[in-house]
Design a protein that fits this description.
Distance between the termini: 15 Å
Shape: globular
Number of strands: 13
Order of helices and strands: HEHEHEHEHEHEEHEHEEHEHEHEHHH
Helix content: 25-40%
């Protein structure tokens, strides 16, 4: 009997752990969607933070939600690190309560600090877990969870050697036994809508190009300010859909400018967009790759996003602008050039399609299902 046949006569429970921003949550929901496609009776709960955008994302995906107290461990000196062990310990006990109540067959995280106490608690209770590494630079959260995870999936081949296979002398001899390259999961519902349909649904003009501006789930102060300064000029030649993140958009009344606090209907937004301006979070880059979107990328300085954007520059798959050297005038020049250079648009779209393996959500979903079935025996 195949795995899918077994799933048709039983229901598995998967706990998704992640939050604080939308980046670590998007792949969790993508994998959940892939699993539900073949097993409609599968049950999910997303455990995140109290105030992050993940609650809205879970509700939009019709997934139950709960939250714990946790804290990010900063890799630099900060007085906030003093309280981090205490907050993680509180989160650990909260996680134990949630795990005992939900009784999942597997826990899945994608690098968020929220996953750390959840996966540690799951290990204490004998519940298997899978973690996914999105970025080229391994997250500290995943490093802290690597020894307790049953499997580790990674986006890039370079990441296969970033994680250890076991504890102490019990490291596995085959480096591919535990760490598996899958690419980054993308929600399949993001694709498939025609631009004409999206433009009509969003009440946009069909004779004007559309710029989609994304600053991440919690918003980017720099990108938001950049738009405030650029919109008066930019809106004369291009329509702008601007996601401010989890905050109230500044009131600016301009024709062709459409601000949103948090866009839940990303399918229409992506389909309508001719150009996307974004940070370099791996979840967003995976979506842009899957959709072949012409993109302008502004990586967050001093973070893993700079490693991600280096790959884009190397493969000539997006226009990468350094925040430190970027101002309104330069942005306007870049967008103007991109709008009128059809050859450059075609090159960027063609190359970004190649940077990510496809069907990643299904690959990771299969791994999780196998582990969950083994645990449920």
């Amino acid at each position: 009997m195949s795995i899918m046949s077994i799933l048709s006569i039983m229901s598995i429970k998967i706990l998704l752990a992640g939050g604080g921003s939308g980046g670590p949550v998007a792949p969790l929901l993508a994998v959940a969607g892939a699993i539900k496609k073949n097993n409609p009776d599968a049950q999910f709960i997303l455990v995140g933070t109290k105030k992050g955008p993940e609650r809205i994302m879970a509700e939009d995906a019709r997934i139950n939600y709960s939250y714990i107290i946790s804290s990010k461990w900063r890799r630099y000196f900060s007085l906030k690190n003093v309280a981090t062990p205490i907050l993680i310990l509180i989160g650990l006990f909260q996680s134990l309560v949630i795990l005992r109540k939900f009784k999942p067959d597997c826990v899945f995280g994608a690098g968020s600090f929220v996953q750390v106490p959840v996966i540690w608690a799951a290990w204490v209770l004998g519940i298997p877990s899978v973690i996914h590494q999105q970025d080229l630079m391994p997250s500290l959260a995943n490093k802290l969870c690597q020894a307790f995870a049953k499997k580790i999936t990674v986006c890039f081949e370079q990441s296969l050697t970033d994680f250890k296979q076991g504890l102490g002398i019990f490291y596995a001899s085959n480096k591919f036994q535990k760490v598996i390259q899958t690419g980054n999961p993308v929600r399949q519902e993001l694709a498939g809508m025609a631009r004409e349909t999206a433009v009509k649904e969003l009440k946009l003009r069909s004779d004007m190009p559309v710029l989609l501006v994304l600053g991440g789930g919690t918003g980017s102060d720099f990108i938001n300010q950049l738009m405030i300064d650029s919109v008066p000029t930019l809106s004369k030649t291009i329509q702008i859909i601007h996601s401010w993140g989890m905050r109230n958009p500044q009131k600016m009344q301009y024709n062709n400018y459409y601000p949103h606090g948090f866009i839940t209907n990303m399918t229409s937004a992506y389909a309508a967009a001719d150009i996307v301006l974004s940070r370099a979070g791996l979840s967003t880059l995976a979506e842009l790759s899957n959709l072949g979107k012409v993109s302008i990328i502004i990586p967050m300085p001093g973070t893993h996003q700079e490693y991600n954007s280096d790959l884009l520059k190397e493969l000539k798959s997006a226009l990468v602008l350094e925040q430190q050297r970027l101002n309104t005038e330069r942005l306007l020049l870049v967008i103007k050039k991109l709008i009128f250079d059809l050859s450059l648009q075609q090159t960027l779209s063609r190359n970004i399609l190649k940077i990510m393996p496809k069907n990643s959500a299904e690959k990771i979903g299969k791994i999780i299902i196998e582990i969950a079935l083994e645990h449920a025996k």
